[in-house]
Amino acid sequence: VQLQASGGGLVQAGGSLRLSCAASGRAFSMYVMAWFRQAPGKEREFVAAISRSGGSTYYTDSVKGRFTGSRDNAKNTLFLQMNSLNAGDTAVYYCAAKRFGDIGRYQNDYDYWGQGTLVTVSS
Q1: CB 53 within 8 A of CB 78
Q2: Cα separation of 65 and 50, whole Å?
Q3: What is the pLDDT of residues 108-117, one digit of tens each?
Q4: Residue 54: how many CB atoms within 10 A of its CB?
Q5: By C-alpha distance, which of 96, 97, 98, 70 is closest to 82?
Q6: How far, in Å, CA of 4 to CA of 99, rounded?
Q7: Beta-carbon neighbour count of residue 17 at 10 Å?
Q8: Which of 37, 76, 92, 123 has a CA between 20 and 30 Å from the CA of residue 21?
């Protein structure tokens, strides 16, 4: 599967953005999907994971209650709705997919990665 993330941009603190990740290829619904991010000078970290059906989600603590991951399997698209953004959310955001296993936060478990989209939050 090939992934293309989009929707990043510059937003003021307290604002919102919605990221999308378009998947090409077959059987999008067979993949667990996730979002990761990499802030300047830091290692890439887990943000959110979404189950194959979209019925289960898992978030890192720092985004709980602010970010919502979802997917539209009919349109082969993954989403990340980000609200109440703060400067700490500034990063390049990546979508990722894995064929086997349950939702999880470990990067090495994900087989396919998008190119990343930059989110900049101004304070």
Answers
A1: no
A2: 15
A3: 999 999 999 9
A4: 16
A5: 70
A6: 17
A7: 20
A8: 123
